[in-house]
Specification:
Elements lengths: L31 H13 L8 E3 L1 H12 L4 H10 L17 E11 L6 H11 L2 E5 L4 H14 L15 E14 L10 E6 L4 E18 L2 E7 L5 E7 L6 H6 L3 H9 L2 E10 L1 E8 L1 H6 L21 E14 L3 E14 L8 E4 L4 E7 L4 E8 L3
Helix pairs in contact: 2-3
Length: about 375
């Protein structure tokens, strides 16, 4: 008999570039940005091009790291390569009185299944994970897992799983919650009704407006602006491609080199920025995306999760991601949950620049201290 894993994520934010087809260089081992860009490209390629997309590379990285710690052999090697040799463990994400950033982990185990003490201790020590044993045949277990997710995402993600499939013996979950005010908020009195020209429809949106000095660049035909949050550690980058550039091409340009080059081009510039208020969420099955990143053996009969348990063998069943983001005049609220289940198997100078975000765009929420991308999003229609 074999076993499986599920993961779920919520969140958004990062930075990219536009222009002629970009060929990504070999990623520098240990670079979280390189891993994040690979994750964003892989997930975006499996989702309908006209759908809004909100994901959290960071939350996925934590959940994948928890899995990698229990893998051996080729299974472990594929996790390491997909993660670009990064391990995302429990850490201080630097919240304060006005900025809330919480990443919490949990391990849920069926009471008929025995996990190695070493793995449990590792989850508690390195990932600060809550470890709970429950009867997976009891519907109340699903409710308990979902309640935990809701509690740790401020009620933004209330359901990450709807059932525990047959032979599922373990669920790994990472929940990420982010809520921060802008360093320089938009004036609510300046918000007005305006059209948003989406990929499939034109709609009327609430358009925020602010004219001020901001870090701004025009990079390979795209407009890029930075909107920092209070505290200075976290920031949002908004990337607006030209009207004639397909969003699939934009996502295809994402790489560590393009990201860093684009950010290096930012300069303080007076900008008339207009961008819409946004509420968006995504609920995704990540199996195909992860296999595109090279994590294949884990989903097959050849999977080796012997570091988790002697009972088995174990196989990764599914990885799920659920994300939510809200962008307003005051700031940004975002949430992500990643769960895994294991089952038994059978710029240039001018008076000022204008940037009107009235068509599909990309955004990133980045941790500038750790050089991580916490959330990333593609907004196609509103």
């Amino acid at each position: 008999m074999k076993k499986t894993l599920i993961m779920a994520i919520a969140g958004a934010a990062a930075m990219i570039s536009c222009g002629p087809k970009y060929v990504a260089p070999t990623a520098e081992p240990g670079s979280e940005i390189a891993y994040s860009m690979s994750f964003i490209r892989s997930v975006a390629s499996t989702v309908n091009a006209d759908e809004n997309l909100v994901i959290s590379p960071y939350s996925a990285g934590v959940a994948l790291s928890m899995l990698a710690e229990g893998a051996e052999g080729e299974t472990k090697a594929e996790f390491s390569k997909a993660l670009n040799d990064c391990i995302f463990k429990a850490e201080d994400l630097g919240g304060n009185d006005t900025v809330t950033v919480n990443s919490v982990n949990s391990l849920w185990v069926d009471d008929n299944f025995s996990v190695r003490n070493r793995y449990v201790n590792l989850m508690q020590k390195d990932f600060d994970a809550l470890v709970t044993t429950l009867n997976f045949g009891d519907p109340a277990t699903v409710k308990a897992i979902n309640n935990w997710c809701s509690e740790h995402t401020n009620g933004k993600i209330t359901e990450i799983i709807d059932e525990l499939g047959r032979n599922v013996v373990m669920v790994l979950v990472n929940a990420l919650y982010f809520n921060a005010p802008w360093l320089n908020p938009f004036d609510e009195h300046m918000t007005f009704d305006a059209p948003f020209y989406g990929s499939v429809k034109e709609s009327k949106v609430k358009m925020m407006s602010r004219k001020a000095y901001m870090n701004y660049a025009e990079y390979m035909g795209c407009q890029l602006v930075e909107l920092p949050y209070e505290g200075g550690r976290y920031t949002m980058y908004v990337l607006l491609p030209p009207k004639d550039l397909d969003m699939n091409e934009v996502i295809g340009y994402l790489s560590e080199d393009a990201y860093k080059t684009a950010l290096a081009s930012l300069q303080p510039t007076e900008v008339q920025l207009r961008m819409p208020k946004v509420k968006a969420e995504s609920s995704l099955l990540l199996n195909d995306s992860l296999q595109k990143m090279g994590i294949r053996t884990a989903f097959s009969a050849a999977a080796d999760f012997s570091g988790i348990a002697e009972m088995g063998p174990l196989v990764l069943d599914q990885v799920r991601q659920k994300c939510y983001v809200e962008i307003s005049e005051k700031g940004t609220e975002a949430a992500a949950v990643t769960s895994a289940q294991i089952r038994l198997t059978s710029a240039r100078p001018s008076s000022y620049e204008k940037m009107t975000v009235d068509r599909p765009f990309v955004f990133f929420i980045a941790d500038t201290q750790k050089d991580n991308i916490m959330f990333a999003g593609r907004i196609m229609n509103l």
